[in-house]
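Re: your question about EamA domain-containing protein

S., sorry for the slow reply, the queue was backed up all week. Below is exactly what I fed in.
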Amino acid sequence: MNWFFLSIIATSAFGTQSFLYKSAVARGCNKFLVTLTFMATVELLAIFSFLYQGAHISQLLFTAILGFLFASLFWLKTLGQLKALEYLPTNKVFPITSSSVAVTVIYALVLLKESITPLQLFGILSIVLAGVLINRESKKRSDYHENKIGFLISFLVILPAAAMEITNKYAALNTNINFFIVVTYLFSILISSSSYLVTRKANQISKNITRDSIKFGLLIGIINFIGYLSILSALKTGHLSLIAPILALSVIITVLLAKIVHKEELNIRQFGLVLLSVFGIVLLRI
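Result:
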């Protein structure tokens, strides 16, 4: 399977993951327990896949460094977004943070010396525009007192978000993919466990919430493993400058799933943005 179709699979998986995560939070699940469970699920699946394929380890130190770096960047990105959302509504935070794809593309073109056609460049611009505008469709909250701190944090989140994609590219080219996932999620579990233990001491969690949180975590973990394995496989042969914009469209999948499940109709603006994103993807394939 080539990089393009692997990217589509990964985008669909990550979009579905985001929808399920939001659904879990909406149902009152403990977000730290959901996150911890999904990461543990990915870790177990990665270990099984790693052992099944022969347990070949290459570039051990380099893999450990990249794994720790990715886990740390993921934590910084998540923490930054949550902090920014304390000061700004989602329809202002996410359009800013989603522009990290532009930084990733520029890095790939300038430092990785990737080359793209004019049509592909137009496709990238179309996708970035669609992603930013669809994020602006998010509902506003009326209790915000916006200030410069929220904007500053949102712009700072761009750096770890872009660095995550760049780290994945180096990992795909230089490490055993399954072992990299094992190392990455091991570090991520350590970070998430600390957060969960602090939360658990502060709040008593009912058995029903715990059970639902674990169920959502298991499902999200399976989907995340499929998505992450697909994107790392795609980055082995595909250009980061083309794959990163496709991944940015996972938000489209999240929106569409929300519309389908909750039986809501797409408005004309949203439908147009979906068509624009599809148009951009087609141009990337030409």
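The radius of gyration is 19 Å. The chain has twelve helices and no strands.

Happy to talk it through on Thursday.
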